[in-house]
Amino acid sequence: MQTKRLKDDKNGIVAAAKILKSGGIVAIPTETVYGLAASAFDDAAIEKIFAAKGRPQDNPLIVHISDLSMIEQVAADFSGKAEELAKAFWPAALTLVLKKGKKIANSVSRGLDTVAVRMPNCEVARQIINETGIPLAAPSANISGSPSPTSYEHVIADLDGKIDAVVCSVSSEIGLESTVVSLVSNPPRLLRPGGITPEQLLEYLPDLEIDKAVLEELEKGQKAASPGMKYRHYSPKTEVFLVEAEDEAFYNFVNSKKNAAAICFLEDEDNIIIKTLCYGKKGSDKEQAKALFSILRSVDGLGVGEVYVRAPEKKGIGLAVYNRLIRAAGFKVIRL
Ligand code: TXA
Ligand code: MG
Question: Is residue 228 part of a domain?
Fold first, then answer.
């Protein structure tokens, strides 16, 4: 299959919508990461997404809407906290897990009776949904297991020849995926940290619980509240370790390594003698989030056997950065 390159202008948006309406799959920009979209009402189109990504069969998709009036086609119940959160945050990097509406294809939720839904804060994404006139199911537009794509070049590197088209737009502003909150759990539960922080959510959900899988590996046989959280993810081929350490301890540790590289903060660079990649300033969770996936994608090009990543602070979006990094590291954490 030849993957069409579409522009993010009116013509490109109309062309993308045409493909989506006729059962095709199209990679689209969003403010979090690029998504691989299909009609949320079309089982056959959804299955094409799973095939193109090599996605585990039990991992459900997020449905994207462009306008609050679309929510009744997606969720069976949208009252109370759901409505309050949507009005406070959307369009945003916030995904709500709600009771599934009847029109949503079964293949979207993979057998669950719930549906994850968000309204992206990306003009081009909303225009594509609006032009299609149908809610769009979209996971991140990468091969399953590899770092999520924050540019159309990343999408092409993973999926060229496997999808109908890609809408080529700017790099994703946030750089990691949306926050997923389940409102069918009581109390409400943070299933995946992301662009909207727990601190922001606590104002509306004072009893919000953080799911154990956010910061720890699930034990064998334990059921994941969010199926996606149980897989190894975001990993380069090079072996990754996450290192929690103060400045000097980190420098001494990585400087003693051979055939290795360090992923560190900008301020660390001058103190490290092995190869480095920087993922933003030490105090800037936003910079770290934006740079992370692109840097993980470039690790294999360094030609080293191992990479040691300096752990971020688990505050603000930093919690999401940490969550992605422990998965990239296959839960191998070194505490010095
Ligand atoms: O920012 C994002 O959320 C991006 C963009 C494209 O919107 N999408 C994204 O999708 O990250 P994906 O498939 O890579 O991650 C979806 C996550 C998975 O961890 C999945 O298990 C969870 O959401 N999820 C989806 N439906 C769910 C449901 N009904 N209950 C619990 N978790 C659900
Ligand atoms: Mg993903």
Answer: no
Report which protein residue has its CA nearest ligand 1's atom 21: 228
Calculate how far, in angstroms, residue 94's C-alpha sits from the geometric centre of ligand 2: 15
- Which of 25, 28, 34, 61 has most ligand 1 atoms within 8 Å of its beta carbon, as the pocket-test mutant? 61
Q: Counting ligands in written order, which one lies closest to the CA of residue 119?
A: 1
Assign residue 315 the CATH number of its domain. 3.40.50.11030
User: Are 246 and 196 contained in the same domain?
Assistant: no
Q: What is the pLDDT of residues 253-299, one digit of tens each?
A: 999 999 999 999 999 999 999 999 999 999 999 999 999 999 999 99
Give the environment of ion ligand 2: residues with CB less than 5 A.
Answer: 140
**Inside any domain, residue 44:** yes
Q: What is the DSSP letter of 310?
A: E
- Report which ligand 1 atom has the smallest distance to the Cα of 115: 29
Give 316 Cα–ligand 2 centroid separation in angstroms. 21
Ligand 1, pocket-test mutation among 30, 33, 61, 62, most atoms within 8 A of CB: 62
pTM of the model: 0.96
Separation of alpha carbons 137 and 60, rounded Å: 10
**Whether 17 and 107 share a structural domain:** yes
Kindly state if the Cβ of 115 falls inside 6 Å of ligand 1: yes
Residue 45 in contact with residue 23, Cβ under 8 Å?
A: yes
Tens of pLDDT, residues 114-160: 999 999 999 999 999 999 999 999 999 999 999 999 999 999 999 99
What is the maximum span of the chain, computed from C-alpha positions, in angstroms?
A: 58
Using alpha carbons only, give the angle 276, 279, 281 rounded to the nearest 5 degrees: 110
Q: Using CA atoms, how far apart are residues 41 and 84, in angstroms rounded to an integer?
A: 26
pLDDT for 222 beyond 80:
no
Residues 136 and 192 in one domain: yes
Say if 331 falls within a structural domain. yes
pLDDT in tens, 154-194: 999 999 999 999 999 999 999 999 999 999 999 999 999 99
Q: Could you tell me the residue range of the domain that residue 280 belongs to?
A: 239-335
